[in-house]
Structures are given as structure tokens and as C-alpha cells.
Amino acid sequence: MNKYTVKKYTENDYKIWNDFIVQAKNATFLFHRDFMEYHKDRFEDYSLMVFEGEKLVAVLPANKSEGILYSHQGLTYGGVAYGDKIKLALVIQIFKVVLQFLNDNNIQKLQLKLIPSIYHQKPAEELNYILFLLKAQLVRRDTLAVIDLSESYTLSKIRKRGIRSGINNGLVIKEVDDFNDFWNEILIPNLLLKHQAKPVHTLEEITRLKALFPQKIRQFNVYENGSIVAGTTIFESSKVAHSQYISGREDKNELGGLDLLFYKLISEVFKNKRFFDFGISNENQGRNLNDGLSYWKESFGANIIVQDFYEVQASNYDVLDTVLL
User: Fold this and answer.
1) Alpha helix segments (H runs only) across 196-320
2) Residue 1: is its pLDDT beyond 80?
3) 36, 112, 133, 183: least CB-packed within 10 angstroms?
4) Other Cβ atoms closer than 10 A to 320
5) How far apart are CA 78 and CA 61, in angstroms?
6) What is the per-residue pLDDT for 70?
7) Backbone angles phi, psi at 108, to 5 degrees
8) Phi and psi of 290, rounded to 5°?
9) Dist. CA 167–CA 222, nearest whole Å
10) What is the pLDDT of residue 194?
């Protein structure tokens, strides 16, 4: 008899879920139910909880769409979260019962978007090994430009020139609580013009999330003579400052606003973080790279890590029966 049981998350589990996320070794505030549910009308939540007796030992933030379970499509990253005391053999058993639960509930496939290793509180790549055992298919790979702030890094000459321009042009950087100027004057027009797209978060949604997570979601704007010319939205977790949105006015690029802004963020505001994550520069499910954007990020001294997306067949759960010797 298996010692683990799996159940779907319900609203009654709100506190136990959130209490678990705080102490998991591979989770951030994005897994908090308040963050996950800001867009609950867009997704059919199918998050799973794994128990050993009465004790919660793992969670999978997830949604279901067209018979496939996704580690939540509304989150930047996902996967199975678990505590730091749990051993690899037990994670294998836990993942097996998750797949078995999906198979028993007529969900044939699970798509996982793994949480990049820089977001781990402690090393936590058990899932990478398990997905190898299951012969999971790698369906997407994105590249993140990341600075390890515990090591020395070098800005390129062109970035240094941009920073000097920003200083010489008298640009002012401010942290603000209001997202209105950045969203309506910079971000929305730029995304529409360049990509015929909209921000993932509406102005109302990002404002609500800021109210829920005031220390975790921060907005930094750049001003020329009191008018906004650039900005970035930072999602801050325990080890990482992640730039969720980066945008500047096309006709003001020569002022050096974004160069100066990110220099200040990296060298002053977030200098005590372990990592600064510029995010991805990929399009088309990872199969194309925005070369100019990637170059700009790397020229701050960032290096590349990857985020992997896997698809696994739920019916393969019994493969894990033969792993342990």
C-alpha cells in the first residue's frame, strides 16, 4: 500500500498550502494562492497536494486544459515543490503517485515548466533526474540572462557609455507604488507596436498584486524633466531580483535611461541579492532568440542559464517502480 495520497486543492486548503510554500526549498511567492488566483477566471485550476498521512509533503501548482495538466500556465515557472528534508527516493515515489493520480483521472499528459535553479532555496533538481527516468520529452527551452552578484561581473564599453549618457542627461530614477505611468505611457504602447501584444498583467492586476505583495513587486521608473522615459517591474524573491517587464520610449533610447536604471538596480538596490535575472529573450516557444535584446542583457555581465519544459505521459508511472535498488 502506497504511503502517499494525492488530492486536488480546494479553497479550504488555502492556509495549509501557503504555510507549506513558505518552507519549501524550491518555491517562491508566485506559488502563494493569492498570486496564483489573480487570474483564476482564465484557468481551470487543478493544483495537487501530496500527503503522507495527515502531513503535506509536496504540492504541484497546476491547471488543466483540453485533457492535459500543466504546471500552472499563469506562472513563470512551476514544478513540484517540496521541503528540504525530503530525500531523492521519496521524491521519486511522490512523483509516481502524482502520475498515477492523473492516469486514474483520465489525464494523459503532464507538462512541467521547471523552476530555474537560481530560485531554489537549496539545491533541488530531483525532478530533472526523474524526468530523465521517465524519458520525458523536452518540448521547450528558454534562455535566461542572469548575473551572479556574488561574483565579479563586467559591463561592456557600450553599456558604460549609456550609463554616462543617463547621468549627463540628468535622468532621475524613482521607485514608485503606482504602475499607471509605466503601463499606459510605455509598456502597453511598446508591446502593441513591436509585438501586437499586451502585458501578461493588466494594470488592475499588477496593482492588485502589488497590494498583496508590497515587498515583492516593485516598480522603478526613469524620468527626464519629470516625464517618464523608461521603467522596469521587479519581482523580488529571497535570492533573486527578476525583471518581469523592461521597456523604454523608442524616441528616448539615446538618453541612456535603461542603461542607467539597470546599473543602479544591479550595483545598488539589489546588490545583496545572489542573482539578478533579466528574464528570457526568446520567442516562438524558445525556438527563436531576440538577438539584440539578449545582447543588451549579456552586456551588463549576465550569463545564460536555461529553463526547461517537459511533457511526460501519465501512464508511464510504473517505470518508477524499477528504479530503486
Assistant:
1) 203-212, 257-264, 291-298
2) no
3) 133
4) 18
5) 7
6) 98
7) -85, -30
8) -75, 95
9) 11
10) 86
Set of cell numbers at residue 256: 541612456
Q: Report yes or no: 81 and 24 within 8 Å, Cβ to Cβ.
A: yes
Where does 31-77 show beta strands of DSSP type E?
A: 44-45, 48-52, 55-60, 62-65, 68-71
Residues 288-301: pLDDT tens digits?
A: 999 999 999 999 99
Q: Is 262 helix (H, G, I), strand (E, B) or coil?
A: helix
**How far, rounded to the nearest angstrom, does the alpha carbon of residue 122 sit from its chain's CA centroid?**
17
Is the Cα dihedral 298, 300, 305, 307 positive or negative? negative
Burial 250-272 (b: 16+ CB within 10 A, else e): eebeebbbbbbbbbbbbeebbee
Q: How many CB atoms lie within 10 A of CB 49?
A: 19
DSSP H/E element including 179: none
- Asked whether residue 185 carries a pLDDT value surpassing 70, the answer given is yes
Query: What was the pLDDT predicted at 250?
Result: 87
